[in-house]
Amino acid sequence: MTKTFPQDFIFGGASAAYQVEGATKEDGKGRVLWDDYLEKQGRFSPDPAADFYHHYEEDLSLSEKYGVQAVRLSIAWSRIFPNGDGEVEPRGVAYYHRVFKACQEHHIEPFVTLHHFDTPESLHEDGDWLSQRMLDAFLVYAKFCFKEFPEVKYWITINEPTSMAVQQYTSGTFPPAETGHFDKTFQAEHNQNVIHARIVNAYKDMHLGGKIGVVHALQTVYPYSDSPADKHAAALQDAFENRLYLDGTLAGAYDPETLALVKEILDANNQPMFKSTPEEMAELDKAAHQLDFVGVNNYFSKWLRAYSGASETHHNGTGAKGTSVSRLHGIGEEKLPEGIETTDWDWPIYPRGMHDILMRIHDNYPLVPEIYVTENGIGLKESLPEGATASTVIDDPKRTDYLGKYLGAIADAINDGANVKGYFIWSLQDQFSWTNGYSKRYGLFFIDFPTQKRYVKKSASWFKQLSDTHIIPE
Ligand code: BGP
To answer: Residue of the nearest CA to atom 13 in ligand 1?
Structure first.
């Protein structure tokens, strides 16, 4: 069945500074939490990534050619404030002015994230989202950017605060790589909600005329079976990864049921409840009433069943299919029902989950004016065919199949009343992946990382047709 999108619907591509820019030591850029961590790990380096720092003109030109109307990119905080706070680095500021100018020249609307997993090193060492210095510095940096870059009309405070908090303190796949600290995870979640709110409120006080939102990773959580125990495990997992953020940023208050689920997880792990103040809660309430949009990053869904053993996780960071494990004490165990296809990285392909999460925002968070799908796509093992020339096109049927299904679910949600205004494919071009390095490719444009040559994938032409017609290509 033909599925269409409204005429004002925006089709874009997404990226993040650390995953595309490379040039991590250039023009006075300060170090970030990943630099030391990746050096010690020794698996892969964030340089050259897609070398967007030097190739932005080429990538934006390709974007325009293939119907990409908007690009999600992030500012590397440590290019502007190398130490996180203190002195400004003018070469970093000038670089982003050049990038935004190029966006304008190519008729591309930049959607700009202030924090996409790349906390400056010195703030990370001070406790990252758990440190007051970090939170204060983030507000200063955000206000600096609002003033300095009036050409930006769409701002995003934080990308996927949940991924950061959970992977830093529970599953240990992001630095400082701690495991089992549910208390730190929830405190970081609350702190992110509060600083996000402060920044939204500050932006609105500046009357700059643009829009501001937050981007959440929202994996829809289903019970593995109809048993009450599995349903409860799903509710706990949802509170842990989704609901504290949805309540905090989209409703401006924590539902008592959410808090009870959080407390249950912490009690089961003998850890204290997170701290909050009435002043912070007032800030959340004010921001939720002024928020312009929420960004939804959805790739897969989760199925939970009851589990009472010790916490045990294994992250599939190599594409060895079937190796992922997630069993969390006090929450539950992830268990995939029969018949659901997965990627090589064990991400279940389940477009219905996209529809359900969009409808949940529509149904349960009525203050939200607009929704953007700010990331969705599929990571594949792709290589350049032998004897490739500049005109070689990379065939990626699995990608267009995936995109067609997920976009279909978004079109259904719009028909069901969700106010979804745009879609950003992850990713615009092939990029560096935090825990997978260079082997997991998502882009519309293939990058041969050693030579930094760009090649078009078939999905790029598919995307152009989608963007030109607003109809999902068959
Ligand atoms: C999101 C992040 C992105 C990106 C994407 C794909 O969580 O916001 O930065 O990395 O997921 O994830 P991965 O690279 O792990 O496949």
So the answer is: 433
**Separation of alpha carbons 81 and 78, rounded Å:** 5
Asked if 160 is an active-site residue, the reply is yes
Q: Which of 426, 430, 439 to mutate to test the pocket of ligand 1 (most atoms within 8 A of CB)?
A: 426
Q: Is 384 a member of any domain?
A: yes
Which pLDDT band, with edges at 50, 70 and 90, does 204 fall under? very high
Residue 3 is assigned to a structural domain of this protein: no
185 lies in which domain range? Answer: 10-469
Binning pLDDT at 50, 70 and 90, where does residue 64 land? very high
Sign of the torsion formed by the C-alpha atoms of 91, 95, 97 and 101? positive
Work out the average pLDDT over 260-287. 98
Measured from the CB, is residue 121 less than 6 Å from ligand 1? no
Is 470 within 8 Å of 422 (Cβ atoms)? no
- Ligand 1 mean position, distance from CA 15 (Å): 9
Tell me 30's DSSP state: P
Answer whether residue 440 is part of any domain.
yes
With a 6 Å cutoff on the Cβ, whether 467 touches ligand 1 is: no
Cis peptide before 278 (omega within 30 of 0): no
Query: Could you tell me the strand order of the sheet in which 312-314 lies?
Result: 221-223, 302-305, 332-334, 325-328, 312-314
Question: Quick one: DSSP state of residue 34?
Answer: H
Query: What's the pLDDT tens digit per position in 22-37?
Result: 999 999 999 999 999 9
* Residue 474 pLDDT > 90: no
pLDDT in tens, 93-126: 999 999 999 999 999 999 999 999 999 999 999 9
In a domain, 157, yes or no: yes
Q: What is the pLDDT of residues 246-269, one digit of tens each?
A: 999 999 999 999 999 999 999 999
Q: Of residues 21, 121, 160, 280, which has the active-site annotation?
A: 160
What is the DSSP annotation of 306-364? ---S--EEE---S--TT--EEEETTTEEE-PPTT--B-TT--B--HHHHHHHHHHHHHH
320: which 2 tokens? 């060895």
346 touches ligand 1 (CB under 6 Å):
no
CATH number of 333's domain: 3.20.20.80
| Cα angle 426-217-107, degrees, rounded to a multiple of 5 | 40
> Rounded to whole angstroms, how far apart are CA atoms 140 and 143?
5
Domain count within the chain? 1
Q: Which residues pair with 70 in a beta bridge?
A: 12, 109
